[in-house]
Amino acid sequence: MNPVLRGIAVYLFVYVIFRILGKRSLAEITTFDFVLLLIISETTTNALVGEDFSLTVCFIMVCTLVGVDYIFSVLKTKSIWFQVASEGAPLVLVDDGKPLLKRMQQSKVDEEDVMEAARLTQGLRHMTEIKYAVLERDGSISIIPKEKK
Amino acid sequence: MEFRGGWDRCCGEARSCRMLNLGHGGVRRLSTVDFPQTTEDLSLLYKYFAANQAALTRNMKKNKQLLEEIHVDLDIQEHLKMQEGARRFQQVGLFCILLFVGSAAFGLYGNGVVSKKHLTKDEINIHFERFFRFQAKMGLQIQATNDRDISISFPIQYLNHFEISSIVPEPTETRVEGSQVKYAFKGRDELTATFYLVPQQIGQIKGSVNVNENTFSISHFIFP
Predict the structure, then answer these.
(1) φ, ψ for residue B70 (rounded to 5)?
(2) Cα dist from A125 to A94, A130, A140, A143, whole Å
């Protein structure tokens, strides 16, 4: 199989898989997730180069992957639809101290995750101290605390 | 009590909200114009918001909407419809992953129950893979019983789609006759010859195997 087609196929497949897993898939990497990522990278390497270990194939693969990534980034800037479809959009999870459970459920985030982010980034103790909690596109949770009176 | 325009959020000055146990920020668009004063007003207000909430839920169900729309004081665009679309895509995607893994476990892509095929004729057995993968080594096993020499032949056109990795046991003689490649094995009680083939083409490959004048039609589908 042509190495360029192989590179594009692997790129798209990995892209779709991580989109299916959702935003939170890479935001919280445990030790096991890290090992899993190493295994995935090893497996995809075999599929990318096959038994051809030439320098040419290496160059073709690097250029293909970087090229596809560049095309994707251009498409994201040109089309809001493509940007949201490929990366998602921020989602408010807590509004004025009230957890929005349906949104949390959909995003596979629970109150513990929100409180963890609140403690780590803002030193907050209770949910009621949060003005807004937003699940960002990269899977992280940003916390906006209530203004102190 | 009449609810007029000028609706505002309940947060910040939501004494009535807390009194009604509606939850701070839980009810949208509480009137600050006609703020309830009496118990009767509060009761009316509670009924109004209960009906409003039920209508919102009904509307969400009607529009197949999973996420409630909220108005926040933040410069972000949530694209809720697309997020719901992404959610459906994830569900379908997860189902596809399960289907893919399940079919692979059963051998739709080789090395499994679905892919293994067995043909028998005159005490000759042939085992081969109906489905396999590009550039992966697969075995084509031929079992035959004959006191005399056993000859196995394949059309050259069929073998052109494969790289022959190895033949176990090695044939005593290999020759080309017309459009066939013939492999001869010494006769024994039971011969089990395995041809390890590596597909070099993607898609359907059709061919045949001749074992002592018995012809077997075989075909493989090779996945990329």
Answers:
(1) -130, 160
(2) 15, 9, 19, 12
**Residue range of the domain that includes A79:** 3-87
pLDDT band at B144 (very low <50, low <70, confident <90, very high): confident
Chosen for mutation from A17, A76, A95, A103 (greatest number of chain B CBs closer than 10 Å) is: A95
pLDDT tens digits for range A123-148: 988 888 999 999 988 888 999 998 87
Best CATH choice for the domain B116-223 from the list 3.30.1640.10, 3.30.420.10, 3.30.460.20, 2.60.40.680: 2.60.40.680
Q: Is 80 exceeded by the pLDDT of residue B188?
A: no
DSSP string of B84-102, one letter each residue:
HHHHHHHHHHHHHHHHHHH
Burial classification of residue B131, based on how many CB atoms lie within 10 Å of its CB (0-12 exposed, 13-18 middle, 19 or more buried): buried
Same domain, A24 and A42: yes
Residue of B nearest to A82 (CA): B82
A interface with B, Cβ–Cβ below 8 Å: 1, 9, 16-17, 19-22, 50-51, 80-81, 84-85, 88-92, 95-98, 100, 102-103, 106, 128, 132, 134, 144
pLDDT exceeds cutoff 70 at A23 = no
